[in-house]
Amino acid sequence: MPVVRPPIDRLGADPGRRRLLGALLGAPLLASSGLAGCSDGATTSTQDGPVELSVFWWGTAKRAEITEKVLRLYSDRNPRVTFRVTWQGADGYYDRLATQAAGGNVPDLIQIDDAMLTEYAQRRIILDLSDRVADHHLDLRGLPEGLIRYGTVEGRTMAVASGQTHVGVVFNRDLLRDLKVPEPRGGMTWAEYFSWAEQVTDASDGQVAGTMDASGDYRALWLWLRSQGGEFYRGNQIGFGADELIAWFELWQRARAARATPGGALVEQADSAEPGRQPVVTGLTAASFAWSHQLPELQRLTDAELGLTGLPGAPGAQWARASMYWAAFRGTRHPDAVVDVINFLTTNGEAGTVLGHERGLSASLAVRSYAEGSITDPAQRRAAAFGASIADLLGPAPAPPPQGHAKVRTLLVTAAERIRVRRDGTREATARFLSGAIAALAV
């Protein structure tokens, strides 16, 4: 159920702390400390009178805690602006937003991901931020170019990354030590990765499979395609053909035959993408594929120490990918204030310290550097180290997925599941997927 908070005010804020933050985050200090690119968070809105902004996001109670804390910090620095916040789990989030959009009651500031960015832009639900980027009222100059590009639709800046993430292999470090099996390493070939997974299954006498079955994981397929010079999408069309998808499905069929993955019934538990159902957390496998920014959440769900490394294939298949975005409702009555809040969340050093890596690496390189020493959570530090290790190896960012991407993702999961339970062969499942994907993208 959505959790609705009353307006966030500043009761209980420490005036001394506010003065300290003002001194720490003043422009002269940031510049003299080599932190150019971190903003001082000054309000750009010229509207008189109080402003209350509604904010909506999905996530855990931990994400809610730190997001409310950083919004309160903004209000400390901008006394006229308060917030009314609503948050909930990922399930049903977009259904609720669709209902709000139909009634013209979208919150002023919303969290979205790349599955919906293009659709919300083309349906004119979210505000075009291009002019504000051009005049630097929304200052994206400290963000990686690929991360900026991944927030543009048809050449227009429609959202700003709230963090940067990558797809990684999350593995159970304690289990591998017990089994005396080496840890997986980034850049392995897919054949090497499956051979490693077979070792795990054999060493555990079949009690634990080496890897999750990611045949229906669009992220893994996308990187597999890019490692071979392909793409998941080209414009608003599927970027690959039947031969490539058949080869992908057959790759995983061979892994299943070699017992590198769990049985079909167990695999489907992870297809929901809910962290608590990831097989590396439930103990079904030694490794899962997940977003790097999810490592702290996954770690909280298990007593075993989790490690993180890159997916098989060339690291250059990855790109500076937005974990999620902040976007402004096109109909907001306070566009300047909303833009200023996005600017604060993205480029302010103290805000970045509070947010940590809950939504991924800070979008701003300057904030990332500023906040680095304040990250104490071991899992967050491992996720940050992984991001830093591949930062210079990333490939060019593609355009965000076209409208219909969410349906295409579901179709891929369905095709993979039908193959696993032998309802379809690889060719039949591929033909069914391509037919459905073409229809989903023809909007």
Would you kindly provide a written description of the structure presented here, covering whatever features stand out?
With 443 residues, this protein is of the alpha+beta class. It folds into two domains: 3-163 and 321-390, D-Maltodextrin-Binding Protein, domain 2 (3-Layer(aba) Sandwich), CATH 3.40.190; 167-317 and 404-441, 3-Layer(aba) Sandwich (D-Maltodextrin-Binding Protein, domain 2). The chain has helices spanning 15-24, 27-32, 61-77, 93-102, 117-122, 130-134, 145-149, 173-179, 190-203, 218-226, 242-257, 264-267, 279-282, 295-300, 335-347, 349-355, 365-371, 378-390, 405-420, 426-441; strands at residues 3-4, 51-58, 81-88, 109-112, 152-153, 156-157, 160-165, 167-172, 209-211, 233-234, 237-238, 285-291, 306-310, 321-328. The protein has a six-stranded mixed β-sheet with strand order 1-3-2-4-14-7. Helix 11 crosses helix 20 (426-441), helix 16 packs across helix 17 and helix 19 (405-420) runs antiparallel to helix 20. The longest helix has 17 residues, at 61-77. Mean pLDDT is 88; it is low at 8-36 and 40-46. This is Carbohydrate ABC transporter substrate-binding protein (CUT1 family). Pfam families: SBP_bac_1. It comes from Micromonospora taraxaci. InterPro entries: Bact_solute-bd_prot1, SBP.
Strand residues, percent: 5-15%
Q: Which whole number gives the mean pLDDT?
A: 88
The tally of helices reads: 20
Strand order across the biggest sheet? 1-3-2-4-14-7
For the record, the CATH architecture of the largest domain stands as: 3-Layer(aba) Sandwich
